[in-house]
Amino acid sequence: MSARVLPERPLPGHAVCLDLRTAGAYDPDAVVRAALDAPQPGGERRFLVLDEADRLVSHQLLYERLSSYGPARVVCLAVGVRGERSVRRTLTLRPPAAGVLWVFD
């Protein structure tokens, strides 16, 4: 990531990235506030969230808050262990405004 583009300073037209795997690295509320300040094409907010596959449901309130800044698009990259056979997600992370890409670590 460029030194100019930080979660707390997104450039116009870019998705705002949240990495929930590194809890405490930065304040998610500050990132959301910065996303609201950054102009997006057509007034739509875009978020790219990195999360652990087994924690998607426990982060439901954050996903609801992100989608409430509408219209908003949320793409979640869920990282999981290879032995798991399914992933649980909240209603907020379903199409058409959101989606989950599940990858193995």
Element order: H for helix, E for strand: EHEHEE
DSSP strand tally: 4
Q: Main sheet? A: 4 strands, parallel
Approximate helicity band = 10-25%
Q: Number of domains in the coordinates?
A: 1
How do the strands of the widest beta sheet line up side by side? 1-2-3-4
How confident overall, as mean pLDDT?
77
Tell me the fraction of residues in β-strands, as a range: 25-35%
Indicate the overall shape.
globular
Question: What's the alpha carbon Rg, rounded to whole Å?
Answer: 14 Å
Structural class assignment:
alpha/beta
Give the N-terminus to C-terminus distance in angstroms: 21 Å
Could you name the ranges where pLDDT drops below 50 across 5 or more consecutive residues?
Answer: none
Task: Provide tags for this entry.
17% helix; alpha/beta; 105 residues; 4-stranded parallel β-sheet; 27% strand; 2 helices; single chain
Please describe the topology of this protein.
Layout: E1 16-19, H1 28-37, E2 45-52, H2 60-67, E3 72-80, E4 98-104
Parallel strand pairs: 1-2, 2-3, 3-4
Tell me what the structure shows:
- The structure is a single chain.
- With 105 residues, this protein is α/β, with parallel strands linked by helices.
- It has one domain.
- Helices cover 17% and strands 27% of the residues.
- It has a four-stranded parallel sheet with strand order 1-2-3-4, with helices on one face.
- Strand 2 (45-52), helix 2 and strand 3 (72-80) form a beta-alpha-beta unit.
- The mean pLDDT is 77.
